[in-house]
Specification:
- The chain is of the alpha/beta class and about 375 residues long.
- The protein has two domains: about 120 residues, Enolase-like, N-terminal domain (Enolase-like, domain 1, 2-Layer Sandwich); about 230 residues, Alpha-Beta Barrel (TIM Barrel), CATH 3.20.20.120.
- It is built from twelve helices and 14 strands.
- The strands form two sheets. The chain has an eight-stranded parallel β-barrel with strand order 4-5-6-7-8-9-10-11, surrounded by four helices. Strands 1, 2, 3 and 14 form a four-stranded mixed β-sheet that branches.
- The longest helix has 21 residues.
- It starts with a strand and ends in a 14-residue tail after the last strand.
């Protein structure tokens, strides 16, 4: 059995609310993803949802995988990451590797006729979800609506985007608490500054909020590469500090462990795929660090999460990104339900893909193309 073809179909979608953070305060209303397919000579196909930037690198990376045994996922990952050595495992290259790797894992589980969680060594238990509104552009009313909607599904933990204005942050946190408690649960709070503050700013602002609130963790309070700054913040506030969701190379996590700079390790599927994510999870386990996983289109990263004993929660957006899927994510009693069918449970609606090919018209896109705001980290 060999891989015979790797292809992708871009598609666009409308978000069900404005999405943004402190670096994108006006928000985005549309998005674009890739339906990625890895086909074999025996007619079995693996698939996944890839980010748009992977379109630039999948064709070149495909040459390293076509003609090989699709079950040898780690060998394919080794070849692809070796190709990235000179310029680094970043940006479109990391996105392309992630897409192919995830589709290969889906394919491998299908070949063995088991759900992906079983292929990855998990036990299939539901994965706890936390609500993440990417809510910076939203009114208080819409903040309440989003978190109350997930509270109705049993979710009790939520993450609020913060950073620019302390009074706004405090007010909106109280709105989120009310919403998350609306179904009778006790709200658990997370804040995310998206690398907005300097270390001293972060300690000041978080300490101010901690006079009124307790946090499960404080996410990316300072720039991701500021290892010393992350450690200082961790020592200067009560809450654990979380970081790592924007890393794309497992090697980027090493300084966090070496210098005690990450109390909670965030792992996203773009850490060069499920193979790379598993490497990071093993490092975190060796250093006894809890792990939280980033959001996904569908529930495929939840399969991965279920195989890690030190996994805490997975982020859930519920913002309309699953429009192209026949079987979107299910949440029951606050947990993501894992499918029992072979693979990751990703199945695309071919009619949707045909009808929603991206156009050349300007779109207010959700994409990882906006940078850190010019006044981030400055006094004021």
């Amino acid at each position: 059995m060999i891989v015979t073809e790797i292809s992708f179909t871009p598609y666009s979608y409308k978000l069900n609310r404005l999405i943004g953070d402190v670096n994108l305060p006006d928000g985005a209303s549309e998005g674009m993803e890739l339906a990625v397919f890895v086909r074999t000579d025996e007619g079995v196909t693996g698939c996944c949802v890839g980010v748009g930037s992977a379109a630039d690198t999948i064709p070149g990376l495909a040459d390293l995988v076509i003609g090989t045994d699709p079950r040898s996922v780690r060998s394919s990952w080794n070849r692809m990451t070796a190709r990235a050595f000179k310029n680094g495992l970043h940006g479109p290259m990391a996105a392309g590797i992630s897409a192919i790797d995830r589709a290969l894992w889906d394919l491998r589980a299908k070949l063995h006729e088991v759900p992906l969680w079983k292929e990855l060594g998990g036990n299939g238990k539901p994965v706890r979800a936390y609500a993440s509104g990417l809510d910076f552009p939203l009114s208080d009313e819409d903040v309440y609506k989003f978190y109350a909607g997930l509270a109705a599904k049993g979710v009790t933990a939520g993450k609020l985007k913060v950073g620019r204005n302390a009074d706004d942050d405090e007010r909106r946190l109280r709105v989120m608490i009310e919403a998350l408690s609306s179904n009778g649960g006790r709200a658990q709070l997370i804040i995310d500054a998206n690398e907005w503050w300097s270390p001293k700013q972060a300690i000041q602002r978080v300490s101010l909020l901690e006079k009124h609130f307790d946090f499960l963790w404080v996410e990316e309070p300072v720039a991701r590469g500021d290892v010393e700054g992350l450690r200082r913040v961790s020592e200067g506030v009560r809450a654990p500090v979380a970081t790592g969701e924007n890393f794309t190379d497992p090697a980027q996590f090493v300084p966090l462990f070496q210098h005690g700079a990450g109390d909670v390790i965030q792992i996203a599927s773009h850490v060069s795929g499920f193979t790379g994510a598993g490497i990071v999870a093993d490092m975190a386990a060796a250093f006894d660090r809890p792990v939280v996983t980033g959001p996904d289109v569908g529930n495929s990263i939840a399969h991965l999460s279920s195989s890690w004993k030190h996994h805490v929660m997975m982020e859930v957006f519920e913002m309309g990104r699953e429009a192209a899927l026949i079987n979107p994510m299910e949440i029951e009693d606050g947990c993501i339900v894992l499918n029992k069918t072979p693979g990751a449970g990703i199945e695309f609606d071919e009619k949707y893909l045909e009808a929603h090919a991206p156009t050349n018209k300007p779109m207010k896109m959700l994409a990882n193309v906006y940078g850190r705001a010019e006044d981030a980290g400055l006094l004021g």
